[in-house]
Predict the 3D structure of the following.
Amino acid sequence: MKTWKKILERFMRLQPLIAVAMIAVSLTVTFVVSTSLFSKFIEFIADNSVREIQNTLDQVSANAQLHIEQQIQDYLFLESILTDNNGEIDSNVKDRFQTMYDTRGDIVSITVLDIQGNILLSTPNYQVKTDIDIKNKEWFRNTLDQDRLFYITNPSLQEIYKYNYDWTYALSGNVQIPGKSYSDSLVVRIDKDFTQISKICSNTSLQERGYIFLIDNDDNLLYHPDQSVIMTGQASEPAIDDYKNINNSGFFRNSYNETIVTKADMNYVNWSFVGVSYEDETAGVTREIIQYIFLILLISIVVIIILSIFIARQISRPVQQLESSMRQVTAGDLETRISIHSSEREVRALADSFNHMVSRIQKLIREKQKEQELKRKSDLDALQAQINPHFLYNTLDSIVWMAECNQNDEVIQMVDALAMLFRISTSGGKNMISLEDELNHAKNYMLIQKSRYTNQFDFEITVEDELKELIVPKIILQPLIENSIYHGVRYLVDPGIIKVTAEIVDDLLYIYIFDNGNGMTKEELKNIWNKKPKKHRGVGIRNVKDRIQLMMGKEYGLSYESEIEEGTTAIITLPVVRNEDNNES
């Protein structure tokens, strides 16, 4: 009985438990992969092969689409030349048409006709076929159709000029000349070499025996790798019927001839690329991949078993020391550090991470204490800035002067503004007030300053009503307005202007304080936060920035934009806090 107990205790140690657990997991994973996912994996590989074929076909279509889009751009460029020249075909137009033809190697010809089918310009100067009736050609009639911007023909032998046997496709459009009637409109046709598109198909392979052909909506073959055999009737293309059966899966598997048919449509033209590949090639790739995966699984099992025993042995030695040190930290001794003298990188990394975490906790505690102290100091500075003795003295002096001059209305206005200024400054001890109260505080401050400086400046406050209900830190505008007065509009010869606006952008509240003062240089703007506040100016703009970040977060605050002789804008960035979201009393 004791022998079995000793064996059980030995087995329950860390090293054998880790080794057995890792071996069991590896064997379980191998069993699940080999039994449950085998058939699904084969299906996935097969479908993935089809997707790769479809991606290849889509790339072929995209490359061909670039040629079509380039031809459309060429047509629009030629159209602009004709419209800019009022439809007149002079030497300048001919030269520009010739330049495009010379610089573009894939253009076979450029033709300009009137709506009667008469050729007005041919680039290059080919000889026109004598028996051709252009006016009754399908492409010409479709081009004159008012519902079309342009018309693209199927590839064929070049049909207008003698002794030209290029295989081309053409884009034609009806050019309306501004200020002229429809009878004066022109038709521009650009013939391009179709081999540029056929080479895309011929140079792309779908596995070893697969191929690509091109058809239109009427199932006419436009390109085929065995074009000559198909056209002479010596063979047919069965995949033309198969591609019609392609459903939402994106392909059709023909079990009769063991082919997989996919297609990709083109824009601007009713053409489709059809890809034909063979299942036996896909299956061969699938078998090779599965064999390779099973070989990797077997090797992985052997490696995992060996590594499990080795890692379990290496981890078990320093674990006791690690546990002892962590118990001390858990008990509250943040001065304790884990010291592991071991060669295992993982264990050392764990110890280093734990030491870093403890150090970080200590640092965060110190930062939190410092932040609380700074916040209290900032609140005290803010209260001191609310009642600036120098400002109060000047204001009361102005009131006395106006009273002596019997300016009773101005005295009432000043006293009322000063009272409102102090009422909002106190705010019942709250640190957060509505934007409307903050704007009223700023308005009363500017009214007082405007009277003191004998209308040396004017001000505007333009804020939408729905924004006024938002909650903001109190007394963030007055120091900035004071800065705008003392450093901005105060030194202007003409009356200055201070504007306060606000908006919400991307769930952020932006408040702008603009003055049209002399502005700041880039160097002054760069060093604005390095300046110490002057006497009688409170803590100024730095106090505003610090209080915002302390109360709302480091991602918010204050920034400046300025241009010399243009003015300066202070930008306050705040979160959108509504009254119901504000829990501060």
Notes: The longest helix spans residues 279-330.
